[in-house]
Structures are given as C-alpha cells and as structure tokens.
C-alpha cells in the first residue's frame, strides 16, 4: 500500500526528489501530519525539536531567537533540521504565516535516513554558504556537460530557425520544384513521400544534374535528387554536425525527428554564424570599424555573444568580463574615431567610466556613465568647444551602439562631468568630507571609476587623492557602510502573494538593485576603507582578504553569491534575447527554477549577514 | 443547558445499544471489540481516533464494500505509519457508475481480501477508538451492515462526523455542495487531493478534523463535544 498523495508531494520537492521511489514511499509512511492555524507557533525557541518539518501547504516564518526575521518558507519548504543534526535546542521560532499543513518526519527517522544517504548532507549542510558553493560548482558542470569543452554542448535544436519547411514530392516535376525553391528563397529542397524524407535537391544538383546534362524540366524530381541524404537530429551537437559537413563536403542537411519526419534544414552558414559569434570576433570588428555606424552594428552583437557564452558553459565572471570588454572597446573606438574627425585634443584628457563597466561587471542592457577628466591646463574659452563636440560624438555613438543615454545625465556631454582634474578633486573632497545622508547613495557610483582611454595618469592622481581622503575619514566610511547595509535584501520573494503584502519588495525581483548592488556596495566599502586600487568587486574582496580586513572564508562565500546571482541574471537575459525582448534585470519569482530559488535564498542570507558585519565594523556609532 | 436532553438520550440509547450488541457478540469474532467502551467524557486529546473511509459500489443497504482506508490520529497528528488501505473481494459484479467514480475495476477488486478478514482487522483497530469520518452516518451504516452480514452482530461505536461538526461549530449559509470534503478543506487552506480513494479520503478527513479543532480554539475539548449524536 502506498500513500499516493504524500509520495507525489515529496517527489516534487528537494531533497526528497532525488530519492528512489522505494525510499520516498517508506519516508511517506513515517510522516505525521499536523495543522497550524495562522499566527500559531509551530516551533518555539530554546525547545527540544522532535521532527523535521516540511510545509505541505501554507507558509511559515522563521525568526532567529524569536524576533529577527530570518527566513520565510512556502510549500515544500523544510525547516527544523539544524537542531536535529546538532542535537541542539531550537534557535528559530517558527510561526504559521497562513493556515499550514505540516508534514513532520520524527527525529529518529530523519537521522536514520541521513545516515544512509550521504548526498543529503549537502542539502542539510550546516551553512547556507557551503550549499551555495556546491551549487555554483554544479552549475558549470551541468551547463557544460563535458568539462570545459564549450561549444560541444550546443545542440542543433538551438540553431534551427523554426519555420515551415518547404518540400516537394518525388513525382513533382523538376520545374515545379525549382519554382518552389525560388519562391521560398531556399537553396535546399527536402523531398518527402508521405511525410517521410526520401531525398534532397540543392542548387548545386540543379546546376550539375539538370542544366549540365540537359535533363528536361518535366522529368520527376526523383530522377535528379540525392536519395537518402545524410540527416541529423535536433539532439545532435553542433560540433558533430560541423564534423560531418567537413568530412562529407556538404553544405546543407535536413534535420529529422525520431520518425524520420523533416523538421528543418541547417546550412553550413547557420553553423558558422553561430560559431563566429564570439566575443573576440566582435571586439576585433569594433576595433576595425571605420565609422560610428559600423561600431554600432558590431557592438549590438553583444546579445548574441552573451547567449553563446552562457550556452557554452562559461562562468558568470568571465561572461561579465567579455561583455565589459566589448563595452570598453566600443568606448575606445568611438573616441578614436571622434578624435580622427576633430583632430588631436588641445590638452591631455582621460575618458573615465563609472559603475558596472568600470568594475568590469557589465551585463546586457546597460546605459552609459562617463565623463572627461581634463588636464588642469584646460581653458574653457579656448578648449570647451572641442571637448563638447568630442563628448557629443562619443555619447551619441554609444547610444546608437546600445549603451543608451544615462537617465541621470552622468555623461561627458554634461558640462558637470567634463572638468579639469582640480574640479574633480574638489568634488570628491566635498562628497567625502561633507557626506550628506540623502546624497550618499547617489555618489557611490563615482567611487567605481576607471580610465578606459586617454591619459591614465590623470585618473591615477585623482584616485590616489580619493583614497587618501576616504580611508582617513571615519564619518564618510560610516555613511557609505550604512547606505550599503540599508539595502533591502529580499527574503520573502518566494511566493507571489507574500510579495503582494510587501510593498518594498514589489512583485518582481530586481536582480541588479536587490541582489547585485548589495555585494558591490560591500566590496566598495572595503575598497574605500583600505584604499584599494581595484575596481572589480571580486578583486576588491580578494584584496580585502590580503589586507586582513576580511576572512578568506567570508570573502569566498560572498564571491560565490556574486557569481551565482550573476549567473541567474545572465541566464535570464539570455532567455530575453532569445525571445526578442528588451533586456532587464527584473524577473518574476515564478520564473525561477527551484534550484535557483533555493540558492538565491542562501545567497541573500549570506549577503544580509555580511551587511550586518559591515555596519558593525564601519557604521558604528551612527544610527 | 439545552443540549442536556439530547445528551441524556444519546447516553441512554448508546449504553442500551452497546450492551445489546455486546451480548450478541459473545463467542463471535466481534467479542473482543466490545471489551472496550470509550467513555464520552474523556479529553479529546487523550482519545484514540481513527479516520475511516469506505469505498463501495453504491449507497444502498446491499451495496458491496470495495475498499477500506484508515489512519490513526494521535496527539493531534495524522500518523501515516498507521495508514491502511485494504481492497475487499467483491461478491457480485460491480455496478458500473460507482466503478467509474472510484476507478476500481472488477479485476482490481478481485485481488482484494475477504470482507470478513478486512472487518476483523478493522475491528481490531477500532477497539477503544472513536471513528472520524466525513458523513459518518454512511460509514456507520456500512460497518453495521457488514458486521451483521458477516458475524450477525450489529456495530456500535463512537462516531465523529466532520460534516456535522462544521455545521454545528461554524453555522452559515452554504451552497448545495458547500459541505463536501474538498470544499471544506479548501476553506481551511488544506491541499486538494484526488478524491475517492479510501485511504486518501480517510487522511483528508483526518486533516480536516485537525483543522476544525484548531479553528474552534476551545481548550480541553471532550470527546462528547465532538461526537455525532443520533
């Protein structure tokens, strides 16, 4: 006898889903079902816990020590395992947020189960950090499938442009078949009989076998087609397809399904387009572009590069660097073309970028944030028109290339951000020495700054000056730290209706502001406190470890979080690209896979803990 | 004290029925069952409960029992360890309509056990326990008929009807199907289950009972506060 309802529920939820059918059935038999109306306490703090709990329906809230909101769980959520694993008294108070039906697995059954299934330890691993780390590792393995073989994992299915396949039957005349090819503008015509593929006729066949041998056009297609052509299936990989093409010297082949029904035709150019769409090629094209329009065309391919990299199993950090590299090259080339047009600059200057491009953490859909740091010999009456025109050419070019105008007008076209070094210094000094709590959030972006073209020396001087001021100024640091620790990290985004209760978190998860920005903020606090020259968040965290301000363990946990969130973001953007939608950083919690959901929750907890730490270390005294 | 009369009658009638049945059960397989009379003023939390559901090929007196599903409720928890689901061998061809509802075919039913064997097992479980069912009058009638048919002894026991309880504790205007198990469960935020499998229905009914008692918010309920009377 099997308890079907319980079994089918367990099968849908981790970690039970990974268990064998027999095992799930036997676990189901050990469960005790309890009901808790909304507002009742399911587990209290400091008590002995006797069972592992699973939310069958409803939602619960875990409060650390009974007060601090720690976690919310919905259907399928599992709680109460830490106290069981470590034979401790409970540390969380668990309250029913809604009427809840809870499945409980008695302690002894849980421990017995765990003993025999080592893999479960991962799920119930003491910290969120370890679980996340394994998830990030696993991500690349599953993405890639073959170690680091890259392209090999790409299936033909992703290359096939889905449209109706034009076909002919073997008894059609050559004339009709040729007309059909012309009308549909195809160079390959699959010949089918009763839905099954029996042959293929190409442009080349028409030339060689029909015109070349003067075969009458009224003859049936079957007399000139290539019978039983080489076919591939949607499941075949891109590399094996390329291999077959080069070995057999063919340029097209039909794709069939398991019933030998034709589903499409793939040409060698389809494969080459795909293969050629890599970051390095796009960068080379941008560098070689003779004008801004050509730069724009090449730079717009960043979307294809992104999807391509994701499907090749490249990790998020590298993807961000590739994408940033394309952005940087676009800036540089546009500036070079503008200088070619306007002549050499009258005084030295540097093009600086701010924000994600400066940190080399750019994703798709970024706007532009830039400015000119001019040499102090700059004389507005004389030189202003040149730099104004230069800025216009640059920013217009960037906008055409997909880096839209900055909504906050942080662009070199704005006179405010086109100033001599001395003015920049004053401005930073002002931000640092007279921090304004209202304004501090708006200035953080300027502390992620990098020179991408021109006189790097100007930016080096500026940066050295900034760090000298910032690292010595506790009050400024405390403002920055406080701003960083005030970001609302979502903990309760796992169910739509809970989101509705929470006005601040809204319906969507804004990956950029709610997940990525907090880590960036944390890394920046360390950079400013320690005077780190690095702009990249990961590098900043690593440097903070070297300088002894951050434990190696903590840093690697944060880096894992960052990597994981970025990978979710890139995958989300890759899907948007495939659907032809504009790129955003907002995603609906329902679009997350269970895997992503679980680990995002871990990531958010790690981030939140670290925000508390930052606030304790640097924001002490200011409330 | 308006329920006193009702209680008095119930008490008197129950005692009479119980004694009469107990006598009739002497030296039958049901003898044992009548050893343990459950006192009605015992704390509900201390009362052993069994959620029960029968599947049959109809609701008439001569309906065939096809399946019995049950599970114990102890300490305000449905204990799946105690879950049982037994197929009962059909004596005659199944009536078609019921088969469609329960998805039990002749072949599957034929694999079941003898009705008397299933009853013996069930009576063992029910001894000293109160029975929780949704529409308990039906379960009562089935049990009674089956016991008479197999052992010539009527069935007397303590029944808790979740449908009754809902009407009594939470009276309000309802639609015609407003008291159906699935509808009520939804009101308590309980998940929806595939209906009409003996065990699933027994579990579903047990969970509903837990939810009803939780929402009632009365401390120290007694068995008699929840019993179906008359």
From TrEMBL, chain A:
Top-level taxonomy: Bacteria, Pseudomonadati, Pseudomonadota, Alphaproteobacteria, Iodidimonadales
CDD domains documented for this protein: CAP_ED (cd00038), CBS_pair_CAP-ED_NT_Pol-beta-like_DUF294_assoc (cd04587), NT_GlnE_GlnD_like (cd05401)
Superkingdom field: Bacteria
Record-given protein name: Cyclic nucleotide-binding protein
Keyword Repeat attached: no
Lipid biosynthesis keyword on record: no
Pfam family name, one: CBS
Matches recorded under PROSITE patterns: CBS (PS51371), CNMP_BINDING_3 (PS50042)
Swiss-Prot/TrEMBL keywords: CBS domain
CBS domain: residues covered: 160-217, 225-282
Domain Cyclic nucleotide-binding: 15-114
Signal peptide span: none
Protein source organism: Iodidimonas muriae
Automatic annotation (TrEMBL), chain B:
InterPro entries in alphabetical order: Ribonucl_H, RNaseH-like_sf, RNaseH_sf
Residue stretches making up the Exonuclease domain: 48-218
Keywords from the named record: Exonuclease, Hydrolase, Nuclease
Short name of any one Pfam family annotated for the protein: RNase_T
CDD domains: DEDDh
Organism superkingdom: Bacteria
Alphabetical list of PANTHER family matching this protein: DNA POLYMERASE III SUBUNIT EPSILON (PTHR30231), PROTEIN NEN2 (PTHR30231:SF4)
Protein name: DNA polymerase III subunit epsilon
Organism: Iodidimonas muriae
């Amino acid at each position: 006898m099997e308890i079907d309802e319980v079994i089918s529920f367990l099968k849908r939820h981790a970690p039970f889903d990974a268990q064998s059918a027999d095992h799930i059935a036997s676990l189901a038999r050990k469960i005790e079902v309890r009901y808790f109306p909304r507002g009742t306490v399911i587990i209290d703090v400091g008590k002995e816990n006797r069972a592992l709990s699973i939310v069958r329906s409803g939602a619960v809230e875990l409060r650390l020590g009974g007060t601090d909101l720690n976690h919310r769980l919905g259907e399928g959520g599992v709680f109460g395992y830490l106290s069981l694993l470590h034979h401790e008294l409970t540390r969380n108070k668990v309250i029913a947020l809604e009427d809840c039906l809870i499945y409980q697995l008695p302690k002894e059954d849980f421990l017995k189960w765990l003993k025999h299934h080592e893999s479960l330890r991962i799920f119930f691993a003491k910290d969120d950090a370890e679980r996340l780390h394994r998830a990030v590792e696993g991500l690349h393995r599953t993405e890639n499938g073959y170690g680091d073989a890259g392209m090999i994992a790409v299936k033909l299915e992703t290359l096939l442009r889905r449209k109706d396949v034009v076909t002919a039957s073997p008894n059609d005349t050559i004339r009709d078949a040729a007309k059909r090819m012309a009308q549909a503008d195809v160079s390959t015509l699959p010949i089918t009989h009763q839905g099954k593929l029996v042959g293929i006729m190409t442009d080349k066949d028409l030339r060689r076998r029909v015109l070349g041998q003067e075969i009458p056009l009224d003859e049936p297609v079957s007399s000139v087609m290539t019978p039983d052509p080489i076919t591939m299936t949607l499941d075949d990989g891109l590399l094996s397809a390329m291999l077959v093409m080069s070995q057999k010297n063919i340029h097209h082949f039909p794709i069939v399904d398991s019933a030998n029904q034709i589903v499409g035709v793939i040409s060698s150019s389809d494969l080459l387009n795909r293969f050629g769409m890599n970051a390095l090629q796009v960068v080379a094209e941008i560098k070689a572009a003779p004008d801004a329009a050509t730069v724009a065309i090449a730079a717009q391919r960043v979307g294809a590069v992104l999807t391509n990299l994701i499907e090749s199993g490249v990790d998020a950090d590298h993807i961000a660097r590739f994408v940033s590299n394309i952005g940087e090259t676009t800036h540089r080339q546009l500036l070079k073309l503008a200088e070619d047009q306007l002549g050499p600059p009258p005084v030295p200057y540097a093009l600086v970028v701010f924000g994600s491009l400066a940190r080399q953490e750019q994703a798709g859909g970024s706007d532009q944030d830039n400015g000119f740091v001019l040499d102090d010999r700059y004389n507005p009456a004389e030189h202003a028109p040149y730099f104004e025109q230069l800025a216009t050419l640059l920013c217009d070019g960037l906008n055409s290339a997909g880096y839209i105008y900055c909504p906050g007008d942080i662009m070199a076209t704005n006179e405010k951000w086109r100033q001599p070094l001395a003015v920049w210094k004053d401005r930073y000094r002002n931000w640092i020495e007279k921090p304004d709590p209202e304004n501090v959030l708006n200035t953080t972006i300027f502390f992620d700054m990098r020179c991408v073209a021109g006189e790097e020396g100007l930016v080096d001087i500026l940066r050295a000056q900034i760090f000298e001021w910032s690292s010595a100024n506790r009050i400024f640091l405390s403002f920055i730290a406080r701003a960083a620790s005030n970001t609302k990290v979502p903990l309760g985004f796992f169910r739509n209706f809970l989101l509705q209760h929470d006005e601040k978190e809204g319906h969507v998860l804004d990956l950029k502001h709610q997940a990525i920005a907090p880590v960036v903020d944390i890394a920046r606090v360390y950079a400013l406190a320690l005077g780190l020259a690095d702009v990249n968040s990961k590098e900043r965290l690593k440097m903070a470890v070297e300088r002894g301000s951050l434990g190696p363990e903590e840093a690697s946990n944060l880096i894992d979080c960052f990597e994981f969130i970025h990978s979710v973001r890139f995958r989300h953007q890759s899907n948007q690209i495939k659907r032809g939608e504009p790129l955003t950083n907002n995603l609906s919690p329902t679009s997350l896979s269970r895997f992503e959901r679980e680990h995002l929750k871990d990531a958010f907890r790690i981030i939140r803990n670290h925000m508390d730490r930052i606030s304790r270390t640097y924001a002490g005294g200011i409330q | 004290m308006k329920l006193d009369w009702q209680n008095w009658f119930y008490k008197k009638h129950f005692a009479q029925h119980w004694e009469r049945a107990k006598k009739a059960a002497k030296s039958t397989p049901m003898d044992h069952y009548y050893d343990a009379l459950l006192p009605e003023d015992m704390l509900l939390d201390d009362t052993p409960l069994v959620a029960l559901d029968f599947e049959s090929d109809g609701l008439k007196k001569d309906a065939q029992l096809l399946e019995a599903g049950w599970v114990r409720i102890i300490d305000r928890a449905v204990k799946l360890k105690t879950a049982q689901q037994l197929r009962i061998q059909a004596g005659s061809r199944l009536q078609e309509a019921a088969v469609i509802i329960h998805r039990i075919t002749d072949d599957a039913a034929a694999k079941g056990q003898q009705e008397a064997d299933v009853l013996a097992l069930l009576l063992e479980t029910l001894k000293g326990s109160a029975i929780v069912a949704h529409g308990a009058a039906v379960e009562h009638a089935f049990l009674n008929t089956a016991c008479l048919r197999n052992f010539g002894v009527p069935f007397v026991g303590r029944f808790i009807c979740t449908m009754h309880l809902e009407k009594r504790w939470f009276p309000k205007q309802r639609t015609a199907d407003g008291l159906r198990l699935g509808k009520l469960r939804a009101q308590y935020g309980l998940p929806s289950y595939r209906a009409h499998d003996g065990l699933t229905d027994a579990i579903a009914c047990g969970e509903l009972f837990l939810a009803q008692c939780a929402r009632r918010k009365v401390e120290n309920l007694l068995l008699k506060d929840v019993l179906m009377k008359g």
